[in-house]
């Protein structure tokens, strides 16, 4: 184990590495081609009105790509479905579904660095989670040359055993990691605070002009002044500010001017922050990723979830060692939650510290119009990595199941400032 020294990672609860070896350093995403993602979808069956297409894009954010495709076709973006959100600064290939669109219409779509290929049709559309895995090919450039092969070999071995399954920095905002902060305010019912965080909380790593405009809004809370200074491309911030200009002090309405999926992501980001913080607290307490203690949740490969007890501890440990199950951490939501063990108690204490409870999540469900029931997630990520060193560059090839972050694997190798991974 090795502790992260980076303030940003510590602020997001990403406090530990599983390997104690020094990092290889280097930089991710020197070009988009250095981060390639290929989705393996779980396609719906049958013939039907949903056209299935392979979408390949370079340096496109998925939501924007979907809106541009919809605009080119003259349809609502709500008629387009997908299984997973992919990295922006990358070359990504995935399947999307389009309701009531013909192959001839797809052939008319012409957008730079984006292509669509028809692969068939189906009775149903794709939805989030409808995928088997993602396959990554990642190149880390300009690594530290000293003992590079040895360090890569050691980390590759650790990745095969298990590393902390943190939510990556991109979950919280790459340049300006504030989504969990806005989400916390939203869950607490402080809608003015949520708008203030989303519009006004600046980052030293963003454009100084934008940062100054954000700081000005946080100080003055004048939406018209902020609209004058915030660039046009910040469409979500401007949508909230337009609402406040027309409806002064209606901060709830301003939040609801955001797309529902984005609003939901604010709440999910705070839940991700809770997960990271409690996982790091477990490691701080010298509890491992692979050795269960009474009260730990056990995620079996067949989908079953059990609880570790004194009576079954030896059996649970054997199952974990053989890859049949993993220790899980439950992140609460609006549903009743009964703490089972030490990690659950850590979570309860953290929620109390943030003055959030089940009723808070229930209220957020009403605002966002999305359920936040709570969910359990494995605390360890295991990855079979094919690592190749060529001079000072390192190429990593590995598959991951849905909802797991390739940058979490890269982080274990690099042990660099997280800004070197965006």
Automatic annotation (TrEMBL):
Residues forming coiled coils: none
The keyword rRNA processing is annotated on this UniProt entry: no
Ranges of residues in domain TRUD: 162-382
InterPro entries: PsdUridine_synth_cat_dom_sf, PsdUridine_synth_TruD, PsdUridine_synth_TruD_CS, PsdUridine_synth_TruD_insert, TruD_catalytic
GO biological-process terms attached to the record: tRNA pseudouridine synthesis
GO MF entries: RNA binding; tRNA pseudouridine(13) synthase activity
Gene3D superfamilies documented for this protein: 1.10.1510.30, 3.30.70.3160, TruD, catalytic domain
Keyword terms: Isomerase, tRNA processing
Domain of life: Archaea
Keyword hit for Isomerase: yes
PROSITE patterns according to UniProt: TRUD, UPF0024
Protein name from the UniProt record: Probable tRNA pseudouridine synthase D
Origin species: Methanosphaerula palustris (strain ATCC BAA-1556 / DSM 19958 / E1-9c)
